[in-house]
Predict the structure.
Amino acid sequence: MIGKTDRGLFFDVYGGTWRRQLLLLVFRIVVASVFIYASLQKIGKPLMFADEIGMYGILGKGSLLYITAIVLPWVELLCGLALLTGIFIRGAALSFAAMNLVFIVVIAYRTAGIMAAEGTPLRQIYFDCGCGFGPTYAWKKLIEDAFFLVFSVAILFSPSYRFVIGRRKG
């Protein structure tokens, strides 16, 4: 049997209710801020965003590409606002987890294509991924998106939330 003092730092940091809720709040603010900023960079420039998406060669040149370029920034904005306010928080977290998973896959796909075509090592691949933050190294973007995926999954599977609008009592 584990005594109260044997549980140590792990349970104090990760098991403590207020600390866990504070950590989840930080995750929500980070993910929401990044995606709200990114969405605002793309909402007014759908054709430029469509060109950036088109560089991946996955959607082709057609209506699906342009619909994605118009709709995706608005989804990012609405989900970001949902995370900040706490309204539909699980839906927003699930959407961000799915988006980040897709982003990781397509960035890895494009990176692998560049590595195969040009023989460029991973650490030197530098391009604009279309995220709204400008050109960056592919390895850095993959790591960032992995962190956002982890944050989103942690928010999604949290048993309860504080710091939300319209929290139910009971």
Summary: Residues 17-156 form one domain. Residues 1-15 have pLDDT under 50 and may be disordered. Residues 103 and 122 are 17 Å apart (CA to CA). The longest helix spans residues 89-118.
